[in-house]
Amino acid sequence: MHGAAAYVDVGAYVAQVMVAAQGAWMIADIETTTALTCERVILVDVTDGRRDFYVTEGAAFRTGVRARHEAFLRQQGGTRPRNLNSNHTTVRPRTSPSGAAQA
Q1: What is the pLDDT of residues 21-72, one digit of tens each?
Q2: pTM exceeding the 0.85 threshold for the entire prediction
Q3: Are strands 40-45 and 13-20 parallel, antiparallel or unpaired?
Q4: Which stretches of 1-103 are assigned E, i.e. beta strand?
Q5: Calpha distance 57→81 (Å, rounded)
């Protein structure tokens, strides 16, 4: 795999694989990402030598990314604070009540 994203066949599914090497998955263009139709998304975190994998249903992932991005924009008054034309967003793991990371 080369770059930050690739597509793989996992059984009967096509999955988008996204790699994070600095604790967050970078999405350069939210419009392109949320327009995808792959059935699964596999998030791989290799930060500091870890090998954490998160597998999620594709539509739910894209819906969540869109909702969090729109919430961020609302907090900023409707536009990105530094670059009005940017479609960039990030996905960061969150901690569950058990202390385990969740994407």
Answers
A1: 888 999 989 999 899 899 999 999 998 888 888 999 999 999 999 999 999 8
A2: no
A3: parallel
A4: 5-10, 13-20, 25-27, 40-45, 52-57, 89-91, 94-95, 101-102
A5: 31
